[in-house]
Amino acid sequence: MERRLTGFAAGVALALAASAAASQGASSEWAPRAEDETARPRAAPEPIRDDDGVRRFAAHALALRAEVVEGGGAAVLARIPGVPAQAPPGLWPPVFENAMVAFGRLRSPAPVALYYNPLLDVAVSTAWERRDGGWRVAAARLLPGERLGGGRGLASPLPSWLSVDDAPVEALAAAASARIEAFRRAHPPEAGEAARNAVAFAAAAADARAAWPRLLWNARQRVRWTSDGEAWLRPALAEISGALAAGDAGAVTAAAPATDPETAEAVAGLPRALAARLVLDMVLSAGADGRLLIGSLPDDGEMYFLVLCRLEGAACALRRIVMVSVLDGGGRTKG
């Protein structure tokens, strides 16, 4: 469950330098970049007419996420109109790494794909167009999850679910369900008409500025994990990895004694290849001496593994493993 931090430690200076610019709006406006297009006439775009067309579009949208997750973030972002060219590329992969992907307007000439990260409560909404026999992103918006439903209220600097004192896991699941439902109301999957761009440039820029603090907070958190001040973390991750790789429920409960038997059996039954791909997404304080580690598969935004440990000197003794699905508003939980 070792977290791949490529680009974060090296790029933190850029990320922190961007903080001041983002707060002033200098780096966060998603202005479309000019394209060197010839003045040739273009045929009217064709709608998607069948399920095969839907599948081909979905494959392009999922491939974009996969390319970012696999380390090609800078190249992908450079191809998306509206992404600020000066944005530190290390900030963006986490948005896509844990993205739930939703599709809208799948019978229209301009389908829509949403990449929503439940942990950060940040989304990238993309409109697509046909080009050269395939699909490409024609426009993109970055926005905090609260504004997927069209709201214009203040967005907190941290993910909204972290502000809930009681039952944060349930709050995480409820927020994710509400965000995806808001997107589907705005862009029904069966819709045959293209979305009307009713978002003013100033509003889109304000949405991006509202999301920046969460990306910067996430970058700072990840850099902190690599510091000497968190010496307990790597041994804890090694212990978690050992329990996941054992394939034995007894080994899971021996490592984290408060894990319930059903969860221990579920964890023990995970394919070893899947368990080896789990990565660390977030570390949170849980009281004075508790720490909550959140991990997942980088190409899946539905299922999360939560591990509670307690600091004891230079170590953090594992206490409990929980598996959480955020696809339903109730936060289906094991553990």
Q: Report the biggest beta sheet as strand number plus sense, adding barrel if it closes.
A: 5 strands, antiparallel
Low-confidence stretches: 3-39, 329-333
Strands ordered across the widest β-sheet? 5-6-7-8-9
* Number of distinct beta strands: 9
**What share of the residues does DSSP label as strand, in percent?**
15-25%
Oligomer designation: single chain
**Through-space gap between termini:** 19 Å
Mean pLDDT: 80
* Number of helices, where a helix is a run of at least 4 consecutive DSSP H or I residues: 9
Structural class: alpha+beta
Shape: globular
CA gyration radius, whole angstroms: 21 Å
Helices and strands in order:
Elements: H1 8-24, H2 51-78, H3 93-97, E1 100-104, E2 112-117, E3 122-131, E4 134-144, H4 168-186, H5 201-225, H6 233-246, H7 249-255, H8 261-268, H9 272-277, E5 279-285, E6 290-296, E7 303-312, E8 315-325, E9 333-334
Antiparallel strand pairs: 1-2, 2-3, 3-4, 5-6, 6-7, 7-8, 8-9
Helix pairs in contact: 1-5, 6-7, 7-8
Quick description:
This protein is of the alpha+beta class and 335 residues long. Helices cover 39% and strands 21% of the residues.
